[in-house]
Amino acid sequence: MDASFWLARWRANDIGFNLPKPHPALVEAWGEIGAAPGTQVLVPLAGKSVDMVWLAEQGHDVLGIELSGTAVADFFQERSRRPSTTEEHGYRVSRAGPYELWCGDIFEFPTEATRRIGAVYDRAALVAMPYVMQADYVRKLAELTPAGVPMLLVSLTYDPSEMAGPPFSVGPDRIASLANGLFTVAKLGARDGLAASPRLREKGLTHLTETTYLLKRTSRMPERVTNRLPEPPSHRHG
Description:
The chain is an alpha/beta fold. Helices cover 25% and strands 25% of the residues. Mean pLDDT is 88; it is low at 225-238.
């Protein structure tokens, strides 16, 4: 699964992952991660999510990274904002008010652009990554996140034999292995996520658990990894 997959999804407006309201887990759990008011929040694979609007309404500046130019353009158009645009480090950067969205590949994102962040919010990024990409994604997050910075992570767990992702099932054991000393991990809560996911029920899921975690960046420097963890047979379609 490469960039062309997601760009095609945006071109076709096949974006069932985009929600019309702020995600309930964000609203309920954000106060638990200890993000100071006024801090800049990094949102990887931001899309045009209204979660960014909610974060801005809490007094945060938002730094989003998004592959699709369509998503970035739609976000500002739907807010009736006309952003200023620049080219920086090979990315097209759009800025307006509290929003700063960088259009390009997150795996090439420059670390100097995230020096100001005070929190990270991942609702649909990790679970969008196939198994073979997840370790490199977490390593990249570690490169971009200063020590001590908290992250609110929303993950999904289901029986992979019932559905081929995305989104992919990423359970607590997998998250602990991916964190690998780069982040501390604490579970904040879990709930049944199937009732609010009709499109996933249509794909055949009979059970879906949505879990929120508080991750906090340690001082350990990330090593170069290429998914050392063995891939389970149930994920080989990813």
